[in-house]
């Protein structure tokens, strides 16, 4: 539909992503980095308030987390970093400048794998967050708790081709950040925010005029804002007019973009090196130490899952769902169940139940041990998949699968379909006894019953087996 709407034009999309780094303290002072829920303006100090004479100190952990993300994406790391002042006036920016990076950022280049392509990363840099403005009817309130929280900004090359792809890219970056543990990357808490830019061009032509859309707070908003903006630009170009360079906002309610302030040119920011922070050398040993801390990357997980025999779609889905892949890896380490059974159940039944209940995997009491034990019963043929599915909700709430099966007699022995199979087996193994029963010698039934009871290790209910034998033999 979208392809048709854009007619002869193709979309060229780039993203700017801000992630809040998961450190204990802010980027240049000792205040808590995550003051969520604290009273307004209680988590501040002279440094993050920008009081005269206060001196910033670089948070080494923020630097390491930033380096880890840059290394994971294959970016070039310079041998020293530089911090710059980006000057602009904004009420929730108490210093009237932001400490950011300009020349010599944390990383340059690199790429994120996406659907067989590589989306190129232009640069990554560290910077401090601003405070928050709360606009009331007749006044604006400021909360500076967030001022100075550590951010990493990641800028892509304009390599994305559709709103869906932009959304998928953000989901991938989120999964990567969460897998690495560098950020909670939760848009709903403002710990992941995106700006997008989009232009249209005829295939093969030079890039068109780009429009930027700022402050998108969810992946869904990114996709909707891009869809709207692509339609808007298509209409302008169809009329033979030109798209004006602009910075737009996005209104959730109407699903429309609207023009915002005209964007500052780079020169307006009067970048200059931060005089209070000397250049930070990045030595080889530091990079090696960060690499040593780096967990397995999602695309390496995907390859490993494929090698275990998982379907391509399942391997990808699990590798980019950090909670699921952690769970799967712990279950795989137990070795009780085959990888494909685990993958199938996690993605279908477990995911379905979580969805139904609006829960995240880690919010349940499901453990890799208990899921493995439940599925092992099923794989060994001791319970049917129907019984396993029926027990899953309770196992999700922390119940012990074997205890449930025992207490309720739910072993395969109580499953009539399974018992019927054993009855058929008994009739062909003991044809003489079967014939005798049909001739009215009911005493011969004991041999057949005994056969089925042995096969079920005595767990079947004899009345049920007796009834099934009678039904199979057509005797009353
Ligand atoms: Zn502070």
From TrEMBL:
Catalytic reactions on record: L-aspartyl-tRNA(Asn) + L-glutamine + ATP + H2O = L-asparaginyl-tRNA(Asn) + L-glutamate + ADP + phosphate + 2 H(+); L-glutamyl-tRNA(Gln) + L-glutamine + ATP + H2O = L-glutaminyl-tRNA(Gln) + L-glutamate + ADP + phosphate + H(+)
Family annotation (SMART domains): GatB_Yqey (SM00845)
Signal peptide: none
Keywords: ATP-binding, Ligase, Nucleotide-binding, Protein biosynthesis, Transferase
InterPro entries in alphabetical order: Asn/Gln-tRNA_amidoTrfase_suB/E (IPR017959), Asn/Gln-tRNA_Trfase_suB/E_cat (IPR006075), Asn/Gln_amidotransferase (IPR018027), Asn/Gln_tRNA_amidoTrase-B-like (IPR003789), GatB (IPR004413), GatB_Yqey_C_2 (IPR023168), Gln-tRNA_amidoTrfase_suB_CS (IPR017958), Gln_synth/guanido_kin_cat_dom (IPR014746)
Asn/Gln amidotransferase domain sequence ranges: 326-473
GO molecular function: asparaginyl-tRNA synthase (glutamine-hydrolyzing) activity; ATP binding; glutaminyl-tRNA synthase (glutamine-hydrolyzing) activity; transferase activity
EC number: 6.3.5.-
Superkingdom field: Bacteria
Enzyme class: ligase
Function: Allows the formation of correctly charged Asn-tRNA(Asn) or Gln-tRNA(Gln) through the transamidation of misacylated Asp-tRNA(Asn) or Glu-tRNA(Gln) in organisms which lack either or both of asparaginyl-tRNA or glutaminyl-tRNA synthetases. The reaction takes place in the presence of glutamine and ATP through an activated phospho-Asp-tRNA(Asn) or phospho-Glu-tRNA(Gln).
Family: Belongs to the GatB/GatE family. GatB subfamily.
Annotated protein name in UniProt: Aspartyl/glutamyl-tRNA(Asn/Gln) amidotransferase subunit B
């Amino acid at each position: 539909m979208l392809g048709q709407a854009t007619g002869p034009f193709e979309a060229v999309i780039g993203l700017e992503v801000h992630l809040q780094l998961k450190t204990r303290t802010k980027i240049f002072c000792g205040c808590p980095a995550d003051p969520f829920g604290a009273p307004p303006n209680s988590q501040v100090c002279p440094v993050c308030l920008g009081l005269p004479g206060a001196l910033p100190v670089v948070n080494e952990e923020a630097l390491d987390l930033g380096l880890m993300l840059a290394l994971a994406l294959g970016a070039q790391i310079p041998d020293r970093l530089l911090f710059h002042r980006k000057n602009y006036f904004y009420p929730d920016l108490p210093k009237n400048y932001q400490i950011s990076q300009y020349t010599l950022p944390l990383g340059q280049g690199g790429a994120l794998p996406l659907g067989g392509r590589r989306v190129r990363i232009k640069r990554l840099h560290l910077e401090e967050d601003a405070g928050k403005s709360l606009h009331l009817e007749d006044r604006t309130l400021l909360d500076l708790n967030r001022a100075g929280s550590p951010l990493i900004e990641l800028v892509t090359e304009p390599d994305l081709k559709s709103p869906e792809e932009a959304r998928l890219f953000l989901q991938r970056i989120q999964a990567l950040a969460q897998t690495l543990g560098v950020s909670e990357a939760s848009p709903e808490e403002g710990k992941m925010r995106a700006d997008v830019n989009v232009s249209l061009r005829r295939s093969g032509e030079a890039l068109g005029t780009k429009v930027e859309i700022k402050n998108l707070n969810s992946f869904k908003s990114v996709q909707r804002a891009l869809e709207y903006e692509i339609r808007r630009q298509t209409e302008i170009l169809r009329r033979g007019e030109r798209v004006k360079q602009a910075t737009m906002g996005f209104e959730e309610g109407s699903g429309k973009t609207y023009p915002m302030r005209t964007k500052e040119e780079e020169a307006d920011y009067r970048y200059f090196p931060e005089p209070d922070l000397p250049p930070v050398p990045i030595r080889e040993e530091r990079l090696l130490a960060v690499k040593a801390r780096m967990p397995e990357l999602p695309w390496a997980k995907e390859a490993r899952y494929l090698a275990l025999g998982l379907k391509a779609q399942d391997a990808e889905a699990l590798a980019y769902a950090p909670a699921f892949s952690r769970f799967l890896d712990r279950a795989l380490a137990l070795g009780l169940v085959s990888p494909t059974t685990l993958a199938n159940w996690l993605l279908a039944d477990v995911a379905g139940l979580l969805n139904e209940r609006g829960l995240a995997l880690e919010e349940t009491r499901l453990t890799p041990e208990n899921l493995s034990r439940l599925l092992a019963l099923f794989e060994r043929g001791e319970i049917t998949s129907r019984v396993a599915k029926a027990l899953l909700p309770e196992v999700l709430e922390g119940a012990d699968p074997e205890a449930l099966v025992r207490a309720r007699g739910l072993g395969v022995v109580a499953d009539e379909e399974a018992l019927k199979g054993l009855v058929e087996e008994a009739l062909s193994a003991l044809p003489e006894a079967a014939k005798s029963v049909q001739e009215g010698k009911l005493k011969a039934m004991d041999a057949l019953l005994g056969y089925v009871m042995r096969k079920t290790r005595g767990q079947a209910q004899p009345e049920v087996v007796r009834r099934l034998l009678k039904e199979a033999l057509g005797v009353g």
